[in-house]
Specification:
By secondary structure, this protein is mainly alpha-helical. The chain is about 55% helix and about 10% strand. It folds into two domains: about 90 residues, no CATH class; about 140 residues, Arc Repressor Mutant, subunit A (Orthogonal Bundle), CATH 1.10.10. The strands form three sheets. It has a two-stranded antiparallel ribbon with strand order 1-2. Strands 3-4 form a two-stranded antiparallel sheet. Helix 1 runs parallel beside helix 2 and helix 4 packs antiparallel against helix 5. The longest helix has 22 residues. The chain starts with a helix and ends with a helix. InterPro entries: RNA_pol_sigma-70-like (IPR039425), RNA_pol_sigma-70_dom (IPR014284), RNA_pol_sigma70_r4 (IPR007630), RNA_pol_sigma_r3/r4-like (IPR013324), WH-like_DNA-bd_sf (IPR036388). It holds the Pfam family Sigma70_r4. One of its GO terms (molecular function) is DNA binding.
């Protein structure tokens, strides 16, 4: 195995063994259409005291990397996604399972009526998990530092459901309708970055503030404006 892949695999294993989920957590598999290479996103300190986001793309045929190496890294991610989702979400009750099943069937039916084919099962499962988030019983939550946080279920619903339940692929690995794709194109780079860090990577408001070199109030400002734009598309 190429040294680069070996180091990355060892690093991922170290994080998993030590349960450093706040630094590395994946909750969704990479689309089968995007598995010819492997992309690894990380953060490095900058001169302002914050963090800059970097993405390392590993390609077969470069630096001794083989197709088997790429498959191995994605396989590790698949296993990690399975256990992360299993640990993050408690067992559903029979009533919840029935409700989720009905929601999925409706989602598939409406998608098929519009597009003429059924959506990817993984995408439907992911959308359902986001739509039926557990433990979000109020519109305002407090994070570990006592900071006000918006109810993440509102954005999760906006990301995972639309009026027609249609999906198209975007750079973040989600499947969105054309309306949602347009909505995200209206966000600023900073707003998209905050959205991704909070709702896709799972960082807290204070962690994002440190990474971006801004205040927690600044993070909330970007988030509020982004949510406002997204809600206007619904």
């Amino acid at each position: 195995m190429a040294l680069l892949c070996l180091v990355l695999a060892e690093f991922k294993g170290f994080l998993h063994r030590n349960r450093w989920k706040e630094f590395f957590m994946k909750t969704r598999k990479t689309s089968s259409n995007n598995r010819t290479t492997y992309k690894y996103t990380y953060f490095v300190p900058n001169e302002s005291g914050g963090y800059d986001e970097k993405t390392l793309e590993i390609k077969p045929g470069e630096n001794g990397v083989t197709v088997a190496d790429i498959k191995m890294l994605h396989s590790m991610d698949d296993s990690e996604v399975y256990y992360n989702n299993k640990n993050l979400r408690p067992n559903r009750t029979a009533e919840e399972k029935a409700e989720i099943k009905a929601w999925k069937e409706k989602c598939v039916k409406r998608f098929e009526e519009r597009h003429g084919y059924k959506p990817n099962k993984d995408d439907v499962d992911y959308a359902a998990n986001k739509h039926f988030l557990p433990n979000y019983n109020s519109s305002i939550d407090f994070d570990a530092d006592g900071e006000l946080e918006v109810d993440k279920s509102h954005l999760a619903e906006a990301l995972s459901t639309t009026d027609d339940y249609g999906f198209i692929t975007n750079d973040y690995g989600f499947e969105w309708s054309e309306e949602m794709e347009h909505a995200f194109s209206t966000l600023t780079d900073k707003q998209r970055q905050v959205i991704r860090l909070m709702f896709i990577e799972g960082y807290t408001q204070s962690e994002i503030a440190s990474m971006l070199g801004i205040s927690s109030a600044g993070v909330k400002k970007h988030l509020d404006k982004a949510l406002e734009k997204l809600r206007k598309t619904r």
